[in-house]
Design a protein that fits this description.
4-stranded antiparallel beta sheet, about 15% strand, alpha+beta
């Protein structure tokens, strides 16, 4: 097989539905939401992000990711297919449904204030029982809630956490969901426990803010399917780290954009030579880094100097200056979207 034939065979890996920022096809117009929804979701609560223009700044470059990459190489242990972020798929929705509520409960048991509140309620009930029924009956029946709370906190804090750290596959299942670069498709589970799948270009990216039960505000990056309303979360950060969500969206777009090389991050370094666009990019010397850059990176330097400087670039980048290319593909995008 000649070099040109081999190149064509590699490029055939990408389907016609794959996302190409330099060739976004024309799409259907949006149905305008009614006045109430427009008022509610189009306020300062939600910000719609731009499509198809990039800062080339990655978010998954934290020292812990580089360290995990190097550890995996040294140990030879790789995540199983379906769980690993590769040149073909960025997986999501891996937690088994029945475990999600248990993990939320375990998180509540790890919170001092929540446990303290219920412990105070239990103690108040004990005192009330002692006054009304007598101390002996209160001790006999009223101490069980406090003992139970203490036992659950200890269980979820130690043996439960210890077990999950050593057996992560116990609560993880490949649901076949994720972001698929070669096909340009997105697949996720809805709140109805159904699977929804649609082309990446049919989603609009939003940042919304959420007030947590204990008060702090967080920002969430969500993709909302513009023709059905189904949405899926991509990332969530504290309100002081909002710029990180712009980098999340920038990185995710470039991952799905087959006209761009894979984001240069630790998790994807082992797969760069397997992705057609990235392989050509690297072969042309455009990466300007060794093939094993992340595998051989000085972690101490990266944590103290390299990564802080990188995050400073993310914080200072003029994200609002990126032109939205999707507005040229969807006729009434600016008029009918939520923000």
């Amino acid at each position: 097989m000649s070099g040109s034939d081999n190149q064509l065979d590699m490029m055939s890996e990408y389907r016609e539905t794959a996302f190409r920022s330099d060739n976004i096809p024309k799409q259907h117009a949006l149905e305008s939401p009614d006045g109430f929804v427009k008022l509610l979701e189009g306020s300062d609560l939600i910000e719609r992000l731009a499509w198809g223009r990039y800062s080339k700044l990655n978010i998954h470059e934290r020292p812990k990711y580089a360290e995990a990459h190097q550890t995996q190489i040294q140990s030879g242990n790789r995540l199983s297919e379906g769980r690993a972020w590769t040149h073909r798929q960025k997986p999501k929705d891996l937690i088994k449904t029945r475990w999600q509520l248990l993990l939320m409960f375990a998180g509540a048991m790890a919170d001092y204030q929540i446990v303290g509140f219920f412990m105070a309620c239990s103690f108040a009930a004990f005192v009330f029982g002692a006054v009304r029924e007598g101390l002996l009956l209160a001790v006999q029946y009223g101490t069980w809630p406090m003992i139970g709370l203490a036992a659950m906190r200890l269980f979820f804090r130690y043996p439960f956490t210890w077990f999950l750290e050593r057996n992560p596959d116990f609560i993880v299942k490949d649901l076949g969901c994720g972001f698929f670069r070669p096909t340009g498709m997105v697949k996720f589970r809805t709140w109805r426990e159904e699977t929804f799948e649609a082309p990446f270009i049919e989603f609009d990216p939003y940042i919304s803010y959420h007030v947590q039960p204990k008060g702090p505000v967080s920002y969430k990056l969500q993709l909302r399917h513009r023709y059905s309303g189904w949405q899926t979360a991509v990332a969530e950060v504290h309100s002081t780290l909002k710029e990180e969500l712009y980098a999340h969206w920038d990185e995710l777009q470039r991952y799905m954009d087959v006209s761009q090389p894979l984001p240069d991050i630790p998790a994807l370094e082992p797969y760069r030579h397997l992705d057609p666009t990235t392989a050509q990019y690297d072969a042309a010397g455009k990466r300007q880094r060794p093939a094993n850059y992340w595998a051989m990176l000085d972690l101490e330097w990266w944590e103290k100097e390299g990564y802080p400087a990188h995050m400073e670039k993310i914080r200072n980048f003029p994200w609002g200056s990126l032109e939205d290319q999707m507005q040229y593909s969807v006729p009434n995008l600016n008029e009918a979207t939520m923000a």
